[in-house]
Amino acid sequence: MLKGIxxxxxxxxxxxxILITLGILVLYRFGAYLPVPGIPFRGMLNAYETAAxxxxxxxxxxxxxxxxxSRVSVFALGIMPxxxxxxxxxxxxxxxPSLQALAQExxxxxxxxxxxxxYLTIVLALINAIGYLFLFKSSAYGLDFSGLPxxxxxxxxxxxxxxxxxxxIIMWLGEVMTQRGIGNGMSLIIFxxxxxxxxxxxxxxxxxxxxxxxxxVITVLVILIIIPIIVYIERGQRRIPIQYAKRVVGRxxxxxxxxxxxxxxxxxxxxxxxxxxxxxxxxxxxxxFFPDVQWIQSFAGAITxxxxxxxxxVLLIVFFAYFYTSMVFNPEETADQLRKAGGFIPGVRxxxxxxxxxxxxxxxxxxxxxxxxxxxxxxPSIVFTFTNNSLIQSFGGTSILIMxxxxxxxxxxxxxxxxxxxxxxxxx
Length: 428
Prior knowledge:
Layout: H1 2-10, H2 12-31, H3 44-52, H4 57-64, H5 80-95, H6 97-103, H7 107-136, H8 152-180, H9 185-196, H10 198-208, H11 212-235, E1 237-244, E2 247-249, E3 252-254, E4 257-264, H12 271-280, H13 282-287, H14 294-304, H15 307-328, H16 331-340, E5 343-344, H17 352-387, H18 390-394, H19 397-420
Antiparallel strand pairs: 1-4, 1-5, 2-3
Helix pairs in contact: 2-8, 2-9, 5-6, 5-7, 5-12, 6-7, 7-8, 8-9, 9-19, 10-11, 11-19, 12-15, 15-17, 16-17, 17-19
């Protein structure tokens, strides 16, 4: 591992990408501590603790914003508006033929969809910013804005405008990281948000419970045991044997070749977890518009915690695992490419039969991977209900799956870059 990191910094291009990624993450964390102008910051943390009550919808939103919401920082909206916009367009591509055709146009079509996603992100961020303004001025927070030296409407514009600008900056930073850095920018931002809460969660876990040290040690050991299992499942794949017939290439006759078509057990990666979390936390985002309406708060609390949340988490993770896999892996297209290249699966006729065979294999291996992710995501939430341990809340199954998935994706990209420059990778 250390040799791989040293080799990565020997390559100028790769070193630049790593430094850009780290620099953007540091800049993002700075923005998570930069307060919004016009907010009475001194009373903010106490007001947040009272309003969130530790485990409410606000606490969940605060976790995925890296604590930015509790500080009402410039980046308080977090990455959720952009992820929500991506989910909407992914779903729309499946039901709107024009968008589906646009996605199949290649790079130009993807650029247009990305641009539409940005516009929708701005709209969603504006709605969220207005909702948070209602929340900050509600009796749930009880903040005093009377001491500000300018009219209330100017203060409202400053707060909403700052939050909206912060969301746009986050979107831009994530895209820059994806294009010029290493890994997926949005996933790395979520990774940084989750990791930022580790020190506080550890301290609270040790000090707040009667058997805090014992529970903390057990929790850490369980996490260390689960991580290799997640890595094993993430790297697991079904290899479909492929045979190529003899063919003439120029003046040479190429002999029959045997290879395989790798299909990952978890083709969708961490996307189902992120998408399911975004949908389940959407009621919490809506609830900020109505902080004094008890039934809305109760509904948001039921969706973000408890048995309803557990059931919906399982269903949504399985659904998005199949949905996203169908978006990124097309059996018909794969079968057509094999046919054109002279390849075939032994015992299966080329064309439609090959596509049906690949689709059947894909459906069979996607289910256990999706169920595994759902179990890892839900079980820690159930345990937290009985233990009320802050470490389990902050680093439950969803957080671990996201962190391990993002880390593996980033390391895989680093490995491919190293091998392009004739260096050994991280995995041997």
